[in-house]
Amino acid sequence: MPWGYSDDEWEIAKVQAKETLRTHARRRETTTYSGLCEDITVARFRHYSWSLMALLGQICAEEDDERGIMLASLVCKKGGDRLPGEGYFAWAEKLGRDVSDHQSFWEGEVERIFASYRDRP
Questions:
Q1: 2-35 pLDDT, tens per residue?
Q2: Per-residue pLDDT tens over the stretch 83-114
């Protein structure tokens, strides 16, 4: 049971999160951690929880393998600089990305996601 969720709950949560993020990508918009948690209805996730970070990490790894994008780039903090959290940039670095300029890296990744979903229904 990953992070206290059944295997089925975890997989459904991942599908729900991916669908939510793909919808945002097609609309060319971002969402917040708390907004994404509200969209995952199969189980309760808390924003900034380790379980949500693990879920987003899996989504990034899967989408990177499939499409060369980090779909979770669309999930940002509500306040401050409105960028993703530090864990996002650490994960991006693990995937081989140059994150030395957080703002530029993030903006480029978001544009790549928007382009990837531009013509998809």
A1: 788 999 999 999 999 999 999 999 999 999 999 9
A2: 998 889 998 998 899 999 999 999 999 999 99
Structure tokens that stand for 73 in this block:
């780039």
Question: How many CB atoms lie under 10 A from the CB of residue 15?
Answer: 13
- Give the range of the structural domain holding residue 61, as residue numbers without chain letter: 2-117
Distance, in Å, from the CA atom of 57 to the CA atom of 95, rounded to the nearest integer, reads 10
- What 3-state class would DSSP assign to 1? coil
**C-alpha angle with apex 67: 16 to 108, nearest 5 degrees?**
95
Distance of CA 89 to the CA centre of its chain: 12
The residues near 96 (Cβ < 8 Å, ≥ 6 apart) are none
Give the number of domains in the chain.
1
What 3-state DSSP class applies to 31?
strand
Residue 17, token pair as written in the block: 């999160």
Count of all residues that appear for the chain in the document: 121
Rounded to the nearest integer, the mean pLDDT of the chain is: 92
